Amino acid sequence: MQAPGDEELVRQSLCGRTEAFEELVRRWAPRILAVCHSRVGRAGMAEDLAQETLLRGFRSLKTLAEPAKFGAWLQGIAHRACLDWLKAKERTTVTFSSLGMDGRGAEDLPRGRSPANEPELDQKDELRNLMEKVESLSEELREVLMLFYYQDLKYREIAQILGVSAATVNARLTRARVLLRERVQSSRG
């Protein structure tokens, strides 16, 4: 038996079958998370925004005019949730430099204790540095990277989600890889 499509699951959800919406969440949550992460560039906040998106989607499901386009509709909600957060963030951002270092600098670390002495911290630092480089990419490049590497989607699937051609996905992914490679190499050298 073939699994029901999004359109059927939306109809079942509207009839009160919560399992149907749970299935929609299982299908779309990873993609929504990738979209949010590409928009805001912070994993923790992306998770919160993805949850917010799913909640907004559930509450607004009856307004969905074309149930077959559930995924695109939900991604639109994710884009708006991220934009709302980014606008609010702009109004409340305090720069780190304006706060100082809370009186603690590198010289305050105990002797013999530096992150470079601990391999686990080196690995975490490398991952953090890589994510900073990913987050510094333009939104369209981050989005393609997240969908390709985090969600393991194929070019055609990414193209459908983003509303672009597979060739555009290929070009963006290639550009993102080149930029990341350059930035990683320049930070090492």
Give keywords:
single chain; mainly alpha; Rna Polymerase Sigma Factor, Chain: A; Arc Repressor Mutant, subunit A; 0% strand
Layout of helices and strands:
Layout (H helix, E strand, L loop, with lengths): L5 H9 L3 H23 L2 H18 L9 H23 L3 H4 L19 H17 L3 H12 L4 H8 L3 H23 L1
Walk me through the structure:
It contains 9 helices and no strands. The longest helix is centred in the N-terminal third of the chain and has 23 residues, at 18-40. Helix content is 72%, strand content 0%. The N and C termini lie far apart (56 Å). The protein has 2 domains: 6-92, RNA polymerase sigma factor, region 2, helix turn helix motif (Rna Polymerase Sigma Factor, Chain: A); 118-188, Arc Repressor Mutant, subunit A (Orthogonal Bundle). The protein has 189 residues and is an all-alpha fold. It has helices at residues 6-14, 18-40, 43-60, 70-92, 96-99, 119-135, 139-150, 155-162, 166-188.
